[in-house]
Amino acid sequence: MASKEVRPARVVVGIDGSDNSRAALEWAAAEAVRRDAVLRIVHALGMPLIVSAHGGAARFEPTPEIHGQATGVLGEAEAHVRKLHPTVETDALTAMEEAPLALLRQSHPHDLIVVGTRGMGTFKSLFVGSVSVRVAAHAPCPVVVVPSHKGKPVSTSMDRIVVGVDGSRNAHRALGLAVDLAAESDAELVVVHSWEVPYPYDPVAMTAAGYQPQEDLFERQSEELVAELLAEVIDERREDLNVEISVVRTQDSPVSAILKASEGADAIVVGSRGRGTVRGLLLGSVSQGVLHRSTIPVVVLPRHADEDE
């Protein structure tokens, strides 16, 4: 039986002509340079779907005016990429589907999807739009959500990467992705672990009575957890792996700890548990919190995105 052909990995970016998608395009182009990968630029029209009792489902064809506008958006995007990075190979695609479905259909497990924080969906008042959330929750590969600052990304570099971890399988996967990204870019990796201590009783009185302070206990457990997690992830990778790693352990909420550690960084990596049926809950509270508050690109590893690697 003939083996299935595997195409080279590529960077897939969704655009709609907005400033937010322009920022995503610039970040995606820089990442395509780092990976020496093809940059696929996708513009989704979201044409209405009509279901017939006899002919099945079909989408309206775009009018010549809509088709011309799409061609113009893609042409401007390719020209902008050539101006920034003349050596990047690009291909452009107009998709009839809604943006999330179009991006998911164009992506394979070894790809990278890049989207803006908003501007491609109906609910443009949301900081992280419906497209970003849906794609990040269901993609077969990592998804980068790029905030826009006056139409540009805050950074297109990957010199300092921050990843938040706990003791879960989800954190193990996210750390593995962060290590790989840091190795590819020769970047510094900052591993963040935080905890919040409940105080049902007076901590001063408990300490005076001879109880061990909870901060000391959590500090020691945090040190052991992070060391074990790092050892497992690094052992799974090649022997010549050389990544500069620092650890931040702090008593704080996970979202606040990650955001504080990301000051001056270029990207944040988070994992997505992908549980629940409500759209807003698909990414988990930490992923959602980081996405809504981060001013730098956030790399989301959806649930099951790396299971076949």
Automatic annotation (TrEMBL):
Enumerate the CDD domains for this protein: USP-like (cd00293), USP_At3g01520-like (cd23659)
Where the record annotates domain UspA, the positions are: 10-147, 159-302
Question: InterPro entries from the entry?
Answer: Rossmann-like_a/b/a_fold, Universal_stress_UspA, UspA
Q: Which family does it belong to?
A: Belongs to the universal stress protein A family.
Question: In its UniProt entry, what is this protein called?
Answer: Universal stress protein
Protein species of origin:
Nocardiopsis codii
Recite the lineage of the species. Answer: Bacteria, Bacillati, Actinomycetota, Actinomycetes, Streptosporangiales
